[in-house]
Each structure stands twice: as C-alpha cells, then as structure tokens.
# Entry
Amino acid sequence: MKRADVVIVGSGHGGAQAAVSLRQSGHAGSILLIGKEQELPYERPPLSKEYLLGDKAFERLLIRQPSFWPERGIELALGCEITSLDPSARLLGCADGAAIGYGTLVWATGGEARRLSCAGHDLAGLHTIRTRADVDALVGELADGSRIVIIGGGYIGLEAAAALRKLGAEVVLVEALDRVLARVAGEPLSRFFEARHRKEGVDLRLGSQVECVMGNGGRVTAVRLVSGEEVQADIVIVGIGIVPAVAPLLAAGAAGANGVDVDEYCRTSLPHVFAIGDCASQLSPFASGARMRIESVQNASDQASAVAKTIAGSPTPFQATPWFWSNQYNIKLQTVGISLTGDTPVLRGDPATSSFAVGYLRNGKLAAIDCVNSTKDYVQGRKLIEQGRHVTQELVADASVPLKTLCA
# Structure
C-alpha cells in the first residue's frame, strides 16, 4: 500500500501550489500529489483563451517543468481517481481498488463542469471547457463556419465566444437571465460586454431558457428554447458552472453543502484533512461574513500557501484578498473584492472608451471593483478595499479623482 506524510488530492493550481509551498516552507517528509487526469499539473485559465485559439502550446501551460517534481521529492500519481475516504484509518480508496495512506490530507479537487439535465444532454457534439481533454475534443470537431451554441453567459461562456469568433465560427450565446454576468457583476459591466460581443458578431439571446437539445443520428443539430425557437448548432458548449468534487469527503462525514466547509486555516471537520480551492467553502470577510466558495486560481494558490505553512509547523490563517481576471478580445478585466446582491454599483468613467471601472459600495465602503483596461483603478481600488475606509458614491464615480487619494 502506498503511503505519504502529506497526500494532496487534486493536481490543479491549488494542489500543485500546496506541494511546492510545502517544500518552500521546510516540510521534509514525503509528499504524494494525486491527479485524476493523466497530465502533469497545468494552468486552467488559458484553456478557454490561448489554448483554444492555438496560440499557446500545452507545454507552455505546465505549472512546473517535468523534472521539477522528482527533483523536489514530490511523487506524482496521475490518472488516479479517489472514490472514498476513511478518516479514522487515514486511508483513501482509489477507483482501481488500491488504497493510499496519509498522515495529513489536502483536498484540492476543484469541481466538475455542470452538465445539462434536459433531453438531449448526452448527444455527441456537446462540450464543456474544464480540462485539456475537453478543449482538445472541442477543437477536433471545429470546422470552417461551425455553428456553435454556447449555453451560459458567465466568464467561461464569454471567453469561449470571443475565441471562437476569432476562429471564424458562428456563435449564438444563450443566457437564461436578462443579462450576462448577472450573478457576479453589476449591470454597467454586463451591458458593456454585451455590446462588445454583439459588435464582434456574437448573437446574444438573453432571458432565454433551454428546453432541450435536439439531434439526429446521436449528434446535436439544434437547441430548442422554451420560447419554441430552434437554434441550429453543429456544436454546443455548456458553461453553467461547476459541481464541487467533494463526494468522498461528504460521504466520510465532513460538514458541507455547497462544497466542503473549512475554517480560517482551511481545515475541514475531519481530523487531519484540509481543503482548498474551488471546492472549499469558507466564511469570507469580503462577503459580509457569508460562507461561500471562491472560484479563482489566486484563491486556490493563496489557500495552498497558507495550508503548507500550517502543516510545516507555522499555523497560518488564510486572509488573502480575492481577485479575478478575464481576457476577451482586447479587453482586460481585473476584479478585486466580492460584489453581492444589494451592493450599489457605481460607474466610474465612460464605457464607450473601453477604459472604465464599476465600484460596488456596501455600508458606505468600497467592497469590490471591476476594472476594464484600467490597471490604475484596480491597484488603487484594491488598497481602498483592504483599508475598509468609508467613501462617497460621488467620489468613487468621479474618474478625475484618483482612488489613491481616498486611501489613508
């Protein structure tokens, strides 16, 4: 039976960073990094952008070069799916029947792409964008003038739409709500991205729900909307979020509902078990103390670094400021903080210039800010958020007033 002092399940950004940080923090014991995919740890954000476009080879996505892992004494177990956990015996069960023992466990599995549940959900030609294999399969089916329907107007759907338009595909994007990014951004930002995508030739169908996916000979041919309209499609991309991959933890008794619950040290309710990244649900001071999962590469990496220090003997609570980014066409969006329903969105600058920001006020303070091609507002806004200073809507809206002047 294989065993390691620290076993990390999940070879994405969080898992890889946990292994790297353990060595950097002085951990001298054995480390086993387990990945469900056969690939070496690699970056995920480029999948819906540079990798899909063919602008970046897979080798350039690797988080570390192949030689790094053995040189640091980090053992990799790739193509291994963990299906069960016995916390009392500190044993993991693998899909192939093997068992793996651990001293300390770090769960960093992220999530699986959420699938459609309507009729036609299993037809050939339906794709998600979560792994290298997902994108390789999608690219393998693309042809000149492919008709593509993207279901979901979040960041993955919008980024895929931008890349596919650049590749010459016909793109229809279907969003159930009345605007894109409705769950994560204010209306000014949504309307800006809608206008830009329409300008680039994307056919947006807002407030449109999918009734079913239609097919012929086992392959998709169209998407039928609740309105009765049938949108022709050679390929359908489903971008409707993820399902946290925590079933073995919950089955073993870990607390959690939407993901697995962790405390300020990223410890689960199971002894000797930590969880980090997209699958971990933590109380966030940036969300008025609400428990939530933060789906962000930087969040996963920062949690990994904190956990590594704790395991190495220096207990370190996770306190990093959440930030996010998205690249579409020539638009660079940078976000810091977390906006919530009920926050007051404040437009800063003119969207017509493609350089502006949207701040979000909560209880008289800047809680978050979305910055479009405006790095200065992003940097200064971050400091303002972290200081928690009271500001006025008028000052935040006045683009002639540098945000740094509102800081301490």
About this structure: The radius of gyration is 22 Å.
